[in-house]
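cron nightly-structures :: item 1 of 1
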Amino acid sequence: MRVEELEKYGLRRDYIELLLKRGIERLNPVQEDAVRQGLFTDQNLLVSSPTASGKTLIGEMGIVRAVQAGWKGVYLLPLRALASEKYEEFKILEELGFKIGITTGDYDSPAEELEDKDVIIATYERFDSLLRIKPFWISRVRVVVVDELHMINDPERGPVVEMIIARLKASSSRVIGLSATIGNPAELAEWLEARLVNLDWRPVKLREGYYDKKSGKIIFNDGSSEDVESDYDERVLNLAVHSALKGFQVLAFVHNRRRVEELAEATANTTVDLKAGRLDERVVETLMESPSRMERERLLHLMERGVGYHHAGLSMPARRAVEEAFRRRELQVVYATPTLAAGVNLPARRVIVSVKRYDPSSSKMVNIPVFEYKQMAGRAGRPRFDEIGEAIIADARSSGEALKYLRSGVESVVSKISSERSLRIHTLSIIAGGEARDRKSILEIYAHTLGSRQYGGIDAFSSQVEKTIKLLVEMKMLESNGDFYKATRLGRLTSLTYLDPLTVHYYVKNKPGEYDELDVLHVVTTTVDYSRGRPYIPEDIVEIYEEEALRSQLARRIGLGKMSDQEIDNLIVGYVHALVLRDWINEVDEDRITSRYEIGPGDLYAMRETATWITSSLAKIERLLGNTAFSNQLNKLSLRIQYGVREDALELIRLRGIGRVRARVLINHGIRTLADLARTPPSKLMSLPGFGQRIVESIIEELKRLGYLGQGQG
């Protein structure tokens, strides 16, 4: 179908011209089927197709249609990084006069700035929080695109997606679900009350195979084979170097961060001449934005040799630099953990996949699900560059094990809504938001979930809901009046801040009597909201601080004899995380922190982000409880965690362009406040370390904006 034909479905001519300008002249088979299935009607739609099959454009066209009719459209993604990437993509719609907005944090903010936005990009959790807050503009949302719908399988984010859809099903909003290939698309479509687009089409043909160690060959599923030189002991390294020698761009997925870095170093140290392009200056500039000198130097050394690595421990600038260099074909080999396959659009001519992952619960290597393999294999083949893409399994124990991945269908998506954590959070939000007041109406909302369908009806977990309500009453989150329930002020605030009720209950029960920096951090890092996703710190590092943790103030308050082994482990690991954060807010150099605790800059960022949210939310809880002084201390602490500064730098850090390092330089030179800064001559500022002309000009403009300087000054 030519895009010009879309005009008859009501799309504006200027949008069609914008598609043509972007090089989109025809819809592909998946997009065309979506049109046939009712994309331009008010019908819900589920699109299940392989990676890189053009699903984003389907969601975009559904949103454009709604905005043309005077409504708002929302596009949801699981991660902030993906939301930022999608926001940049959607900004092209500004050429049509559309206003594009993004919201990914500040869970208790009503986001009034989105009132005039036509298209809103958001994370699942942020949109779920908006559905609780109910800003007045939310009623104008007519279509919600849920990208990565298969995330329903995820124990953490899956219940959030289910509850969003359950709420939307009870409203007039339309849902367009986009998913990679899943095992039960018809079941999900039936649950969504949606028409199904389920095509196994890819823009580039995929050829799959596996490495057979006995024969030293890659065996492809089409019957062909390829000899591989065995120059190295490591299979993934052998395959990557072999593929690079053939001139292929290679993505190699390995389920271990340290191994990813070691393989990148090993590849760069071979004598192989990697056919990569010279690094673009903008790529180097992006990498230089990394806060870690060690990270910058190590990655630059590798990238200049055509090799990179990518994992969650990298800082965002480093990740962006690797991604951009690979897209520009300046890197030939990138080793990555599977987080890269979960959303970032980074295709390669050949993808090498390890199907083994260490399972800490069994202390064994286990096989990954077929779905995860397909996600990674889906990155093979670059549209417009390759006629074929290849995915090679590196470490199957046998041909039978490899063929399971090549020939088996992917697993079904299964609801996780009935977990204790999920029911705590969402039952409270349903009651606090006024959507239900009694057991029957609560169950009616849960009846809209996928879990209700898969568990055999709502009665299958009604007893769990009753148990949850009883727990929330005991936590003083709910009040019970016969068969009716009402959220307390504590319960409403807990729901609005998006904290798990158990986090608030734990904090209130175990907080220190007097404010102590490390003690408060220790309580925060042992809450369920922090511990569920905290970055890994190696066991040998944790062991160094074990005795210290067991003597901590929190350990004495709770009493080790009252704690299970799991709770003691959480106490010890949480203590080490508290030490990391204490170093950070006391301005210890970032490289020293990452070296001392063997974490990456990306890990430190994740710790800061989570701890900032929890601490600022608990400050609101303390204010509600009447503890104003403690609330003020927590507010300061949350800002210090956010920016990584001592308390005396909190005023200076408000200025854009002044980070933790520049703030300390100013203070060391007697400039302690914004008023001091406004009185300081630009010539003196430019003489300070790290203050060039461009930075000083930016500071002056910021001081004018805040009213510290008149427009004619500076």
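cron nightly-structures :: done
The domain at 652-705 is CATH 1.10.150.20 (DNA polymerase; domain 1).
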